[in-house]
Specification:
With about 290 residues, this protein is α/β, with parallel strands linked by helices. About 40% of the residues lie in helices and about 15% in strands.
């Protein structure tokens, strides 16, 4: 079974129409049923964002001691101003709004989107503001939700967060580079993996993939053959691989309905993980923003 302390429930799907293979729009009642089930199972950690339309209001439908991880984006005008007061005010407003709508006493973790892409002056301003607000107990932990790994080592070295949320899956193993792992351990950064199914792409059969993914035929066929030869279900292997990777402290799963959640929770983690296929650093495949 999946260790409860490793599991984070992603809420992007509560918005509906999220991801390449998520065709079902979740109704409010569907979301309510999922939240009630999570409450009964004592699964309280939710990953959300103010940019997910109406999602924080939906979470607030079911009152619970939710452990909220929320991501924030900065409007361009605030970033371009390099104004410390405006940066701080924006973060505080985001936190207060989330607390009010979700109906919790405190936001557990605040993550800044795309921090790795900020210039050094902006990184310095935002980083110091995050530390200041943590000391004032606006949240317990802070960190970054990243997409680009090119400047990650510099971020870990000079702007070390409590938590780093990043993509990690069978195809995308960039976080496992030797230098990056050394910095993560040295700075005692906790890693939260997202996109463990690559927005559902890793669960599809090759002949059902959209044409735009056929250029990576070799990689997909290797993945298909690997799971078939060892009689693994793709869903089970994807979850087991993340669970068994020591560097990953927690991981996020997104769900389209209650039955899907129950199926994932019932999975038996594989005892041995012998991944014999290569990953890729081709962002045209592993970064869904480029699809």
């Amino acid at each position: 079974m999946i260790p409860k302390n490793k599991l984070i429930i992603g809420t992007a799907q509560f918005e509906g129409d999220y991801g390449e293979f998520n065709f079902k729009h979740l109704k409010r009642e569907d979301v309510r049923k999922i939240l009630i089930f999570l409450k009964k199972k004592n699964l309280t950690t939710l990953d959300t964002s103010s940019s997910y339309k109406n999602v924080i209001e939906k979470i607030g439908m079911v009152k619970n001691n939710w452990k909220i991880i929320t991501k924030v984006k900065f409007p361009k005008q605030i970033l371009n101003s390099f104004n410390k007061k405006k940066i701080e005010a924006h973060l505080i407003n985001e936190l207060l709004e989330a607390k009010k709508k979700i109906k919790v006493k405190k936001i557990h973790t605040l993550l800044v989107n795309n921090f790795e892409l900020f210039n050094d002056k902006l990184k310095f301003l935002v980083f110091n503001t995050l530390i200041k607000l943590k000391k004032k107990k606006y949240y317990s932990k802070f960190g970054y939700s990243i997409y680009d790994f090119k400047k990650l080592n510099d971020v870990l070295l000079n702007f070390s967060p409590d938590i780093l949320q990043c993509p990690f899956n069978i195809f995308d193993r960039r976080i496992l580079s030797k230098k990056t792992q050394e910095l993560i351990k040295k700075k005692k950064v906790k890693i939260h993996a997202r996109s463990i199914f690559l927005q559902g792409l890793l669960l599809q059969e090759y002949d059902k993939l959209p044409k735009k993914f056929k250029k990576w035929k070799k990689l997909f066929l290797e993945w298909n053959n690997f799971t078939q030869e060892l009689n693994y279900k793709k869903l089970n292997y994807c979850v087991s691989y993340v669970c068994k990777t020591k560097l990953i402290d927690k991981f996020i799963i997104g769900i389209n309905n209650l039955n899907q959640l129950k199926e994932i929770l019932s999975l038996k983690i594989l005892k041995k993980i012998n991944l014999s296929i290569d990953g890729t650093r081709d962002e045209r495949l592993i970064n869904p923003a480029k699809w």
